Amino acid sequence: MQDSCMHFQKSLQSNSNESVTVFNFLSETVNSTLSERNEASYHCLECLMQGCQECGIQQFKLAQEEESKDVLVKWKRYEYINPLNANNIYKL
Q1: What does pTM read for this prediction?
Q2: CA-CA distance, 34 to 51, in Å (whole number)?
Q3: Would you place residue 1 in the very low, low, confident or very high pLDDT band (cuts 50, 70, 90)?
Q4: Half-sphere exposure for 11 (CA within 13 Å, toward CB)
């Protein structure tokens, strides 16, 4: 999912003058919505539990095109697939 979002954001950047950060990792995306880490290199529990007034999705900046209602979004999902056949032998 992160890869799809990253590629979409990069395609928008090439077509726009707007500057929005493109995160390469999910952890970077999450960190952008939280306050700075403390001395022990952890986020405060209050921030993680959404009790901090400085944290939240309002910190996450979207490009104007990402907020458009006119864009068709293709959703993906992952489903569990049983790797065993009827004889309980792994399918290859």
Answers
A1: 0.52
A2: 11
A3: low
A4: 8
Tokens of 58: 């309002």
Residue 90, helix vs strand vs coil: strand
50 pLDDT higher than 70? yes
Residue 50 token pair? 């959404």
- Per-residue pLDDT band for 17 (boundaries 50, 70, 90) equals low
Tokens of 38: 């403390």
3-state secondary structure 20-63: CCCCCCHHHHHHCCCCCCCCCCCCCHHHHCCCCCCCCHHHCCCC
Rg, Å, the chain Cα set: 19
Residue 33 tokens read as 């919505």
26, 49 contact by CB (below 8 A) = no
